[in-house]
């Protein structure tokens, strides 16, 4: 999104954002999204052991997954295993080999995003992998990497200085009771300690993103406001704050101990928008930044095509989803035999891809009519007539007064985009849970 577009998006919420969409309508939207995710994010994939070569003129983004953690958080549904150094070092070697296979196919990338798990379980291997990626793919302009508060001030972490442009740190909350309930207090320390580590990390990376979650049990309006005020005082370059996601995998623990069953997500989201207003620009429905032209966690907004490497990663290339093996053993065997880690694929219809792009456009705060015309040969008002009618009827989008091609998301639209993306990610988490279910001890 251009600077001018982001400035106009911010104008939509600048004067005390107010979400007027009735709660029953938002509940209905969530039920509708759950229907569509169940329909489209299901395991009806076809066996596959290769990915296609890149298309001329297309932009690509590279994602790499590191599936190891020293401890496993109860609310996390990402693909991860308990850390073992021998397994992790062998994994990084395989990851670098898979990168070389992508290079041999002709790929280059504009951005690299490394997620997990905990990407920094072996900082020396991570640094070596990033250096290898930069050498293989000279088009990479920005490297983003996830981490947790534990590693921020370790001596070995300095190996990432100059290699990582954007560091995203999962904090979730500064409230002591919430951190204790989520088992993070014992792992990462008191909120004041985490705050000081973040303050020091700001000087070591061009972009520091702090990742927060709202919707926890016990997270009253006062607690959430205190979190937001601490964030603005800390002043990281970027903030990502999204609702707690309850999936099939986490439903029992999250509903019983973690999730706020009485949450009014509209009031929480209004508070977040209005607290960060004036300090940050809106990047997506749940991402905020000091600058308008930087990458952020939801890379799918800016890239139609991305390639995922590593066990448990997903690729979306040319309207087809590719799924890498969730078994570390099978992943290693495939790489050792000269094949990439992909095991299955699923092609999506033109209409399904249009709906997906519509979701991302709303989540990103803007919709380009010419984008749909160029990519699908039709206007969104024709190809997605029901969806567009609903957005206008609920006051979720409005015409950009400076650009007849663009529609802007209002606070109602940002609320819709947030809930739609929340349910989309929850659907992806359910897919991960199904793919992990058959794994046994020999798959580690």
Number of helices, counting only DSSP H or I runs of 4 residues or more:
16
**Poorly predicted sequence stretches spanning 5 or more consecutive residues:** 1-15
Amount of helix: 40-55%
Q: What would you report as the Rg, rounded to the nearest angstrom? A: 21 Å
Tell me the structural class. alpha/beta
Mean pLDDT: 86
Oligomer kind: single chain
Number of strands: 18
**What separation lies between the terminal Cα atoms?**
41 Å
User: Taking strands numbered 1, 2, ... along the chain, how are they ordered across the largest sheet?
Assistant: 10-11-9-8-7-6-5-2-12
**Basic shape:** globular
| Percentage of residues in strands | 15-25%
The biggest beta sheet is recorded as: 9 strands, mixed
Produce the secondary structure layout.
Elements lengths: L2 H12 L8 H18 L5 E2 L12 E7 L1 E2 L11 E2 L2 H20 L6 E6 L6 H14 L5 E6 L18 E7 L3 H6 L2 H5 L2 H11 L5 E8 L6 H14 L3 E6 L7 H8 L6 H12 L4 E4 L2 E3 L15 E5 L4 E4 L2 E5 L3 H9 L5 E6 L2 H14 L2 E3 H8 L3 H4 L1 H9 L3 E3 L6 E4 L1 H26 L8
Parallel strand pairs: 2-5, 2-12, 3-4, 5-6, 6-7, 7-8, 8-9
Antiparallel strand pairs: 1-15, 9-11, 10-11, 13-14, 14-15, 16-18, 17-18
What would your notes on this structure say?
Strand 13 (314-317) and strand 14 form a beta hairpin. The chain has 444 residues and is of the alpha/beta class. The protein is globular. The strands form 4 sheets. It has a 9-stranded mixed sheet. A 4-stranded antiparallel sheet has the order 1-15-14-13, with no helix packed on it. Strands 16-18-17 form a 3-stranded antiparallel sheet. The two termini are 41 Å apart. Helix content is 43%, strand content 19%. It contains 16 helices and 18 strands. Helix 3 packs parallel to helix 4 (123-136), helix 3 packs across helix 11 and helix 8 (221-234) packs parallel to helix 10.
């Amino acid at each position: 999104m251009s600077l001018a577009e982001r400035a106009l998006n911010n104008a939509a919420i600048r004067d005390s954002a107010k979400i007027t969409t009735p709660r029953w309508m938002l509940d209905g939207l969530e039920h509708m999204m759950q229907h569509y995710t169940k329909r489209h994010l299901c395991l009806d994939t076809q066996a596959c052991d290769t990915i296609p070569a890149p298309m001329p003129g297309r932009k690509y983004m590279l994602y790499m997954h590191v599936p190891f953690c020293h401890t496993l958080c109860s609310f996390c549904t990402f693909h991860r295993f308990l850390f073992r150094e021998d397994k992790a070092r062998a994994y990084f070697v395989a990851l670098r080999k898979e990168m070389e296979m992508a290079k041999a196919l002709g790929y280059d990338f504009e951005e690299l995003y490394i997620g997990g798990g905990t990407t920094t379980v072996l900082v020396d291997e991570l640094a070596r992998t990033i250096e290898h990626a930069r050498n293989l793919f000279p088009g990479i302009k920005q490297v983003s990497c996830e981490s947790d508060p534990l590693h921020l001030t370790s001596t070995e972490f300095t190996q990432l200085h100059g290699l990582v442009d954007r560091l995203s740190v999962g904090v979730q909350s500064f409230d002591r009771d919430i951190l204790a309930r989520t088992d993070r207090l014992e792992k990462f320390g008191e909120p004041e300690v985490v705050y000081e580590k973040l303050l020091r990390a700001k000087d070591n990376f061009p972009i520091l993103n702090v990742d927060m979650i709202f919707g926890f049990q016990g997270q009253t309006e006062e607690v959430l406001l205190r979190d937001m005020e601490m964030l603005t005082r800390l002043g990281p370059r970027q903030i990502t704050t999204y609702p707690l996601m309850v999936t099939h995998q986490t439903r029992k623990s999250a509903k019983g101990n973690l999730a706020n069953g009485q949450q009014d997500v509209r009031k929480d989201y209004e508070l977040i928008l209005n607290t960060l207003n004036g300090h940050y620009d809106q990047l997506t429905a749940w991402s905020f930044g000091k600058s308008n032209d930087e990458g952020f966690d939801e890379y799918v907004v800016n890239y139609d095509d991305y390639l995922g490497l590593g066990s448990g990663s997903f690729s979306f290339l040319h309207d087809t989803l590719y799924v890498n093996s969730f078994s570390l053993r099978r992943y290693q065997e495939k790489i050792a035999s000269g094949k990439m880690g992909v095991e299955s694929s699923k092609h999506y219809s033109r209409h399904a891809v249009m709906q997906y792009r519509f979701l991302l456009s709303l989540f990103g705060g803007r919709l380009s009519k010419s984008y749909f015309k160029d990519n699908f040969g039709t206007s969104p008002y024709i190809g997605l007539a029901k969806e567009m009618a609903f957005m206008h009827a609920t006051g979720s989008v409005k015409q950009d007064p400076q650009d007849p091609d663009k529609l802007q998301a209002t606070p109602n639209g940002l609320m819709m985009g947030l809930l739609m993306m929340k349910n989309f990610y929850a659907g992806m988490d359910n897919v991960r849970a199904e793919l992990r279910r058959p794994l046994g001890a020999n798959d580690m």
